[in-house]
Amino acid sequence: MDWIRTSNFSKILGVALVGLFALASLALAQTAMHRNGFETKTAWNKGAADGGYEEIAHRIDDRDPHNGRGSEYIEFDAKKGKIINYYYGVGKAPINEETRVAVWLRSNRAGMKLMARIVLPNERDPNNLDYRLTTYIEGDTYQQAGRWQLVELSRPVKLAKQQQQLMIEGYKRQIDFTGAYIDALVLNLYAGPGPTRVWIDDLEVGPIESAPAAKPDRVDNDNTIKPANTRRRNSAVEFVGNRLMVGNRRMFVRAIRYTDTMLPVLSKAGFNTVCFGRNVSAAQVGEAGDLGMWVVPEFRVTDDKGGPLTPDDITKQVQRFADHDALLFHRIGGVLSFENATLVARAAQVARGADAGHPIAGDVWDGLLPYSRSVNLLNVHRFPLMTTLELPDYRKWIQARQKLANPGTFTWTWIQTHLPAWYSEILYNQDALAEFKEPVGPQPEQIRLLAYTALASGCRGLGYWSDRFLADSHQGRDRLLCCALLNQEMDMLESLLVTAEDSPQWIDTSVRDVKAAVLRCDKGVLVIPIWQGKFSQFVPGQAAVSKLVVTVPQIPKTTQAWEVTPGEVRGLRVERVDQGMRVTLPEFGLTSAIVFTADNNLIGRFQDQARSRRQQASQWSYDMAYYEYEKVVKVQAQLEKMGIDVPDSINLLRDGKRRLLRSQELWKTRKFSEAYHEANRALRPIRILMRAQWEKAVRGLDTPVASPYAVSFYTLPRHWQYMDLVRRSSVGPNQLLGGNFEVAPERKQDSWKESSEKLDDVIVTAARVSELPVRRSQTVDPKSKTNEPKIKAPTAEYPVEGRQCAMLQIRAPFGKQAPTALERTHVSLVSGPVRLPPGTLVRISGMVNIPATITASPDGALMFDSAGGEPLAIRMTEPTPWKKYEVYRKVPASGTINVTLQLTGVGTVYFDDIRIEPLVPPNAAPFPNAVGQR
Q: Could you write out the DSSP letters of every residue in 702-744?
């Protein structure tokens, strides 16, 4: 059941998932839509009947629902009569021009009728003054026997006025309809004597001011209401081959990690699965199940000291919820590494003995091959936002992990929705769990880009890492709405996503920064264009184009192309060319979903889903845009106060606000598809402004991570303050010992510690060298008649500081081919600690040379410090001559800081002239003399 309303929870999710802001007053409209997909529980109750009938079945049925995984099924044998009513309490739905009442029906017979009970709050029932006067208005009649039909209560205001006139004539007095509202729906299922089978699905009613009543007073004057029955799920969970099956259907997991958020809010946002920690209570699991969510409890395989738990301990944990009908799978706690693969395999065997009916999942960092033999669902994840890992490299990392596992292994991933703890501590000087008083990231656009990148990389399920960062306490309303919209989209595309067996094929588009993934599915081909522009992990930019052209290979001639969104399903213009089928998107923003299919039933279902969701989708899109707009306005005001502005900023903000107003007006006139698109357009000028401010901030820096405050738009005011202090400071003497690697060949350089580890068949080397070998290059003389390449003699390169530099190298053994992906291999040099007062501002610099592309790892070569850590590392993979990098850090509370030089991929990198230099503020005492490069 989907019940979404506005409210204000303290330090948790106090966000209206539905409802528009009246932009003139910037006040949230107190509206809500009530929806029920009838996935887990029956909700229609017996009402009045004027003839005998025998109810044979009343349950949730998974046979061909209109949408989702189930519908409510009622079967009875009717005698002669006119009425067999079933009712559904809806709370309080005021009758106005925005009121919508609709439900999907399918039956073996025609003639069922939808009605709504109207309560007149200012009138008393003359037959029983304890009750308010009620009446009924009639809606559509079901006519398409054997097929799903949308049955609606069209124009309820007009119907109510007509009913008012009839009542005035009947009672011979005026009847006050002021404040009239719908509190219950009634289905008269009588269609004549004989067997009748009815399926009910996708009910929508609202806007509603109060939750559905479990027991309204009365629907019929002589028939007391009974509360809805609670029934167990009839959908068995299985793991067949590499497929997660629920009720004989493949399932796409849309999960959320639970901490302390109200479960109804997570359910309303469209998450179908909630992952609990090991200390979850039975009440919480029961509540999630009652809300229609699947549950994933966690169990431990090691104790607090890392030792293996006994089989009895594991069995006790697993059996705790093994019989719960909402259990989807068990999840091993923690992040699993290669060293524990054998221990986990034994524990998984014990867990299966305790519960053979449910699969087992685990978050795996390395050792993917052995884990893919013992764990059913492998989660591979990392958090790239606010780091130097680009989105295309994030995709390559996911795909590389998949290749390291057994072919066809079920893989899923966690999507970053949060600020990592290191980031919160460095930038905000607070715990990430604490409440934030100012706008913080990530941006909703970044969550969308990560989700679709993972989806298009072959992940068969998505989990969102932090529910807390979707809360008001963490400035998370826009992120929550983004997740809700993503869940809508994934739900619509589920039938395609779960049948894509082969790895996605990535293709170029007409725009360099937009790549498209091609997934070949049972009922068609799904093409997912995604913005992959540089530095999107920091600030995405506009990420939108008009007339995006995608040429998709191997598309059958009989198919048509459709763009599928919750706001609208629209046909696209296609053209057959030599390379395949060329399709043009009139406009593209961030992501899209194009479906090539000849299955009219599939498109019909998409269109039905869009019709039933577009009002909600347009509301959510508007609200998300509004929240983000408000954040940006606040940060922009801070920047302007500091004298930091970019061209056209006022017009960009005005354009965003104008589009928000336009979206609101379209929504009010019930043009929901147009409102949906306009709300999405409203964020484009806002993103242009954010990106322009960010580009101005990082201009002149060697890398965006040179300043820890430059990795997000929301911290740019802090960045400018930070860099102002840097510019006003003078550079003190170098404090790092041995950064020029000038040590006699026979001597060991004690100031740098070498470390390495490898799970792969490679050779790792760390050495000091005096000359850098350069590959011979080949060029073709355009005047040559033979067109044979000329080989240029190599030009030697040398260290930039003195006669020696550091070399890190990873290569394949002689006679063997280098691996295409490294699982856990690195060679590192770690400097000795530099001791300085905590909080001292320092400049860390170094020279880097990469002679050839580093492969088998998207991280390549790294240079990072102990203050920023690996997340703020400089990552390098492409060939480059000697280049200097500088970053600025503050010495941690420990009073020490050091530098790490690291190689994680196949190739060679050279480092030289590594320095840690204190920055001396104006009028401060100078630092001691340099330690010297020894």
A: SSGGGSGGGSSGGGHHHHHHHHHHHHHSEE-----TTTT----
